[in-house]
Amino acid sequence: MLTKRIIPCLDVRDGRVVKGVRFADLTDVASPAKLAAYYSEAGADELVFYDITASAEGRRLFTEALKETASQVFIPLTVGGGVSELADFDRLLKSGADKVSVNTGAIANPSLISRAADRYGSQCVVLSADVKRVGGAYHVFAKGGRIDTGLDAIDWLIQGERAGAGEVVVNSMDTDGVKGGFDLPLLKRVCEALSIPVVASGGAGSAADFVRLFREIPQADAGLAASIFHFGTVSIPALKREMQACGIPVRTEA
User: Fold this and answer.
1) CA dist 173 to 56, 82, 140, 190, Å?
2) Has 176 been annotated as catalytic?
3) Burial label, 254 (beta-carbon count in 10 A; 0-12, 13-18, 19+)
4) Helix (H), strand (E) at residue 223
5) Which of 51, 88, 98, 130 is catalytic?
6) Is residue 251 part of a domain?
7) d(CA 101, CA 74)
């Protein structure tokens, strides 16, 4: 079995890392470069850097904060926020990103996924989806979780895989920041529908939540979290030790 990845998420607004609950009530945390260096040294497998207001504000991602962050890490870095055209992929990859995450831009222009995959390779294209229950269905939301697109989340992710996305990040808006555990029903449906790597995001509150994720959904490739790492609730070395003790394969330092 492949090792499971642990990925801290840096939600960046105005050059600072922030964190909220269900995409609201944002609290300042730290500088992205400082946190990135800490997580890189602590044994994180990858990092995600999201400029969370770029799409809603109709602007491009701030590359200066990205360049400073990228200079501090030697693990894969996924970057997203305001990505709406191929030129954005080029700019972010040249600024230090290893992979580019697209969300609202792909909803507005689905061909962006296939064009980016053709030019840069599927391994560079990450489709991120902000998902929330609406009635009895899962809908995709755009503009940082502000707009209900009406798209069925499972159908949309299948479409993204077929277009060439190499990985998906599933952000559960229902569990985001609540610390009650990952959205397992949603993630099970996604993992059953896709064959590409699935990163679970939203809801982790303890090491046990990661253990439960990978035990109940062994197809999940990675767990992503923010506040429990940012505020010291769980350390990455301690999390990996607990996962190992529970028989879940993780990468450890030599």
Assistant:
1) 17, 19, 10, 15
2) no
3) exposed
4) strand 222-225
5) 130
6) no
7) 19
**Rounded distance between C-alpha atoms, residue 15 and residue 33, angstroms:** 10
Distance, in Å, from the CA atom of 218 to the CA atom of 198, rounded to the nearest integer, reads: 11
**Residue 101 lies inside a defined structural domain of this protein:** yes
Task: For 182-234, write each residue's pLDDT tens digit.
Answer: 999 999 999 999 999 999 999 999 999 999 999 999 999 999 998 899 888 99
Known catalytic residue at 11: yes
Overall domain count for the chain: 1
For residue 253, tell me if it sits in a domain.
no
- CATH number for position 197: 3.20.20.70
Residue 228: inside a domain, yes or no? yes
Q: Give the Cα separation of 109 and 124 in Å (integer).
A: 18
Structural domain boundaries, residue 233: 5-245
CB 251 within 8 A of CB 45: yes
How many angstroms separate the CA atoms of 231 and 52, rounded? 19
Q: Tokens 């993992």 — which residue?
A: 191
Cα 246 from chain centre: 24
Task: Tell me the pLDDT tens digit for each residue of 79-91.
Answer: 998 899 999 999 9
Q: Which of 190, 156, 241, 229 is nearest to 200 (CA)?
A: 190
